[in-house]
From TrEMBL:
Domain OmpR/PhoB-type: 1-87
Ranges where the record places region Disordered: 240-291
UniProt keyword Transport present: no
Residue ranges of DNA binding: 1-87
Listed name of the protein: BTAD domain-containing putative transcriptional regulator
Entry-linked PANTHER family: TRANSCRIPTIONAL REGULATOR REDD, TRANSCRIPTIONAL REGULATOR REDD-RELATED
Biased composition (Polar residues): 245-258
Family recorded in the similarity comment: Belongs to the AfsR/DnrI/RedD regulatory family.
UniProt entry keywords in alphabetical sequence: DNA-binding, Transcription, Transcription regulation
Amino acid sequence: MRFGVLGPLQVLAGDRDLTPGPPKHRALLAALLLRPGRLLTVDRLIAEVWGDEPPASAEPVLRVYVSALRKVVDGIRTVPGGYLLDVDPDQVDAYRFEGLVTAARRARDAGRIVRAADDLRAALGLWRGPALAGIDSAELRRAHAVPLEELRLTALEERVELDLALGRGAEVAGELRAHVTAHPLRERAWGQLLLALNQAGRRSEALTAYQEARRLLVDELGLEPGAELREAHARVLAGEAPSPNMANMPNVRNTPNAPSSAHSPHIPSSPHMPDGARAVPNETPPDVADFTGRERVLDWIRRSVPAAGTAPVHLVLHGPAGAGKSAVAVHAATALDFPDGRLHASLAARPPGAVLEDLLRSLGCPQGAVPADLAERVRLYRSMVSGRRLLVVLDDAADEAQVRPLLPTGSGCLTLVTSRSPLSGLEAARAWELDVFAPGESVAMLARVVGERRVRAEPEAAARIAELCGGLPLALRIAGSRLARRPNWTLEYLAGRLDDEHGRLDELSAGDLAVRGSLALGYRALSDRERLLLRRLGALSAPDFAPWAAAAVLGEPADGPLEALAEAGLLQARGLDAAGRERYGRHDLTRLYAAERLVAEEGPPAQVLAAAAREILDRTRRARTMLLPAEPGSGQTLVRTAEQAAALETTQLRESARWLAAERGFLVATVGDFERAGLDEAAWRLAFYLTPFFELGAHREDWRTTAELGLRAARRMGHRHGEALLLRSLADLHRMEGRLSEAADALQRALPLAEVGEVARTRHRLGLVHLAQGRPAEAEACFVACLAAFSAAADRRGRADALRALGGVRRAEDLLVRSLEVYRELGDPRGEAAVSLDLAGLCLDRRRPSEARTWAERGLGLVRRLGDRLPEAGGLVVLARVAMAEGRPDAARAAAEKALGTFGEYGDRRGVAWASLTLAGALLDLDEIDGAVDAVTRAVGEFAALGDRPGLTGAQELANEASRRRGLRI
């Protein structure tokens, strides 16, 4: 079996392509393939498959994915703490690529140039496109795709260097022209293009290419060409014969084919360059004694170190204030060997000219020889670093303009830049965003500062301190320092002091270290409008938000200030959300600082929230209306034409669902913000508007949290109608969870509070509870009363709901068909899909499998177009039952297993119960008795826990049959 990650993921067994289809399966397999034979923890895999916001059921779903992959790939082993893929690395194209590059370099160093070129050509031939193409994992792309792409470019340039040494300039000139077009800032490639054109006898084109490269470097970076490109230009100018050049090849300078060094032109030194000055500076500050973790970024830095004679590498470590960027840079620098020295400069707000003066002195330039002009200083600096292999640490950079003149251009040099900004305009650099510590790393750092013994004695308090510090290294260091200086303090005592949000920033101060001071530096550097946005965002407790929400609190478009705050490291761009919009986040301590500034400069947050509430409620109400075509809380129905309904299916319905999915965390947090600020009307309405979305996605904890907050707000303001609506919402949640007595109690309390138009809706839900409790007579009475009330009020949607419920309890096909017609008239595809599946089940009970399949496929098609995964899983269960009736148990098993996976992923216990029961029947027909017993046992347990008597009765009957057949087989 062969695996490919150098392009789209590929799994080949002979001529068969076994590449998994689901995106999450591909991401999981890629994560395992990129580290064959190595343990990957469950937490690591969850982060790489789902990113920063995994679902609550990520761990069991991961097991399902692993199980599915094992059917395709041998060697996935479960080990303590996680999984590993036991395959030969040579089966993975990325490892074959790296192995061939290593072999080529050995052959080159041994003077076997033709073999080295062939190995590099074979290595590059393994690439089929961008590394990890189509893999939806920012973690994997950042950690693996970027380094692989960089190695590919380096390998290409090394192979070209060998081809030039073999006199193949004419063959590679076209390839090089395409290469510099794609990567215009790679000076080494431009130099190779000059030499290739010269070898091909196209000297004038080579000189033109140099001018093109110089103009581009000056315009884009403000830099003159480096030593390597200047040397190539000088060789062309000197009229050097267009013959193979072996002079730059390692270990082959004395071979018979190597030209004399006399052909190399003399490049005069700068007039300011002191003769014989060759200082070896070592200016890196002392390493941090309690440095903790950061293995991934340290490994990235180590792997990025350029080899001697190769192009310089510039790395940017960026992240929020206090993330430990400087500590990482210093720790990495002290462990790296650079024979010509290490330079270090603290930039802050210093102009580049002043920094250059310090760097020149460090390199041995006498005081009187430092030029006054900035351009002259830059030229002298480049001359002095040319030929030296240096490590340069540029700490706390403000922007790209400050950094560009300080970048060393010498071969093999490495620059480590730290900044709150990613310095996106620094085209020649690669960047790594330094995030906060994971919980385990946070506790480990705390232990390094305060002592292992004290942390082991109070592990829960240590974890709480780490959580309250938000994993921010600066905050953890301060907390640890305070504990270290106060041996009589317990960790529990400090955790209690930090627990108060209003005083947390006061507590996180020790000596000259203070989180507030670090944040204040960034705040003071902002414009008035940027400061206004940052502090108003302090009114929101959500961990992230979209630009529309920032505009709502600012009172005007906020795109410009958002980008500026992200550049300043006070916000972090989190990438595109489910709705395709950029999201921004901030550290929790940044939020507290912003809230502090809001109170100090504008007053309590209620005024900001009140101004933003209308926009938030309007957007949520519009999205809800698309999901549920009724005006919230009114009992009125929106009527849509068939054409409108069709358009909504393909556009607005999906867009609304995506918007709600993207904004779920923000809206849940905002309900709490409104309630705490005393904005009770906004709190209960927002909680109510979110109910159908939570029901469709089975987001039960969010549902519970917001409904309880909304209920409290409605009661506090004495809004009886709002209280009734939130009680009804909680009842729906209780029914879904199988807590039927609690659901009935909530509905009974809601009935006397509900307005006239909502009484029938509340009674309708009470009927559904009675039905789940196994009390069909009481359920039918409720549905009959509801139908009469809805008809009298001309509430067409309510009438459709009542007809469907009554048709279900009476098993009356005509009532279901009438319900379907009303849903169609209303343009409600979700209602139409649900009734279609009801009709499929009824046809099955009446032994009409052909009609049942028609209805099931119609309902399933509707929910798939809508993108509703839970209703789709319900449709798959119906389709599995149809397949059983048609005598196709294999198809039934496949549909039931797929449904079971979806229900399990969403934590839908009722769905799990019915899918397990259906799967058990299919397995029984396939004579897989043990599997059937396992599945029906699970179904019995779920139905019993849910209090679903009808479901439990059916499951027990099938369990008895499975046990009987197992006994017969034995």
